[in-house]
Structure formats: structure tokens, C-alpha cells
Write a structure and sequence with these properties.
Strand order of the largest sheet: 1-2
Largest sheet: 2 strands, antiparallel
Strand content: 5-15%
Radius of gyration: 28 Å
Shape: elongated
Number of helices: 3
Low-confidence stretches: none
Distance between the termini: 65 Å
Length: 109
């Protein structure tokens, strides 16, 4: 029986012409980098939200920013439905974040 197992090992020996499967290393995994970026963005949003909550609790004038009441922010209200679509606020925040990330990338080169 032992001789039979020895022959089976030689039959299934990997061929040198077929490369072994290559598993991506940390540097070859772009999805891992995307995951880290999304995690960092999520943590930034959590901290930003907590900062806004804390600012309103200690009495800082956060309402002067008028986020959510800019021109282009649509509000539709009926007695059973309230719909809010902040296009103007989204555009303003997109411009600010794009400029900040552009400047950050320029300084980190």
C-alpha cells in the first residue's frame, strides 16, 4: 500500500512549464488600496459629522454656513411627504473637496 501512495505523488507532480499560481502581494492589489481609501474617507466623514454635532452643542454658529438652504437646493413638501434634494450644497461641497484634494496632491508630490 505504501508503494501505491508513492506512485501517486509522482503522477501529480507539477510540471515546470506551468507556472505556479501567483497570489498578488500587497503592492499588486489595487482593490486593497481602494479599500483603504474608502475606509479613510469614511472615517473622515464620521469625524466631520461629529465635529458638526459638537460645534452646534457648544454654540458655534454653524447655521451661518446655510448648508442645505443654498440656491439650487430643492424642497418639496406636502402634508404626507417631504422631499429634499440639495444640488447646490452638493456642488459647493464637491468644489471645496476637489480643490482641497488637488492642493493636497500638489504638495505631496
Amino acid at each position: 500500500m505504501a508503494g501505491c501512495l508513492c506512485r501517486v505523488k509522482h503522477i501529480y507532480k507539477p510540471s515546470p512549464s506551468i507556472p505556479a499560481p501567483r497570489y498578488p502581494s500587497h503592492q499588486d492589489a489595487p482593490m486593497a488600496e481602494l479599500g483603504k481609501t474608502l475606509l479613510a474617507l469614511g472615517l473622515f466623514l464620521v469625524f466631520f459629522g461629529l465635529a458638526l454635532i459638537l460645534a452646534t452643542r457648544i454654540g458655534l454658529p454653524v447655521d451661518r454656513l446655510h448648508l442645505g438652504r443654498l440656491p439650487g437646493d430643492f424642497t418639496y413638501r406636502t402634508k404626507n411627504l417631504s422631499f429634499f434634494f440639495p444640488i447646490g450644497t452638493c456642488l459647493l461641497l464637491s468644489l471645496i473637496l476637489s480643490a482641497a484634494l488637488y492642493l493636497l496632491s500638489r504638495f505631496t508630490r
